[in-house]
Amino acid sequence: MMRRCPLCAETTTALYHRDRRRDYYQCATCKLVFVPPEQHLSAAAEKAEYDKHQNSPHDTGYRRFLGRLFTPLLAKLAADARGLDFGSGPGPTLSVMFAEHGFQMAIYDLYYAPDTAVLTQTFDFITATEVVEHLSQPGKVLEQLAGQLAPGGYLGLMTKRVSTPDAFARWHYISDPTHISFFSEETFRWWAQKNSLVVEFPGPDTVILHKSLR
């Protein structure tokens, strides 16, 4: 059966790993590793998993976790920058952290803050923490977010990265049934080049993409 990559839409894909629950394919072009659509959870089952999350802006540990993206991104922003936290979840926190530093923030979440009006606006920076691994159509979503960036804007992502097939087989990250798209550094570099963005990796699970002023 032909497997189309959900990031770049190419059809040259091969089985990368298989466990008791799911299959994982890798795209030969962009190197994304992905779970085929028929093995995804239903929307109701997916939301039930997210409802278990207990994230809150009052949780100092969670703030520290988000700080891995917040700190390097904050250093790049102009004082009047306007931001969007995409996939803000049941307890928006990163948007609160930026708002505390004087930034005007919007949030969007498919299940918890589904105001699609913000998806037609442009922003100086957009964050998506622990989001891309949940996307069934990462190519479509990331293209949309890149299109919402103002010239000179930043897209900050947080997701754990694929390294080797051996490490993947032992990786706790794939045991989450809502995780269906797995990026490597190579995947992000490919996507950045294709979309004329400059990419940097501030940490092992963070990515900052910069849109040129032109």
TrEMBL record:
<keyword id="KW-0808">Transferase</keyword>
<dbReference type="GO" id="GO:0032259">
    <property type="term" value="P:methylation"/>
</dbReference>
<keyword id="KW-0489">Methyltransferase</keyword>
<dbReference type="InterPro" id="IPR029063">
    <property type="entry name" value="SAM-dependent_MTases_sf"/>
</dbReference>
<protein>
    <submittedName>
        <fullName>Class I SAM-dependent methyltransferase</fullName>
    </submittedName>
</protein>
<dbReference type="Pfam" id="PF13489">
    <property type="entry name" value="Methyltransf_23"/>
</dbReference>
<dbReference type="GO" id="GO:0008168">
    <property type="term" value="F:methyltransferase activity"/>
</dbReference>
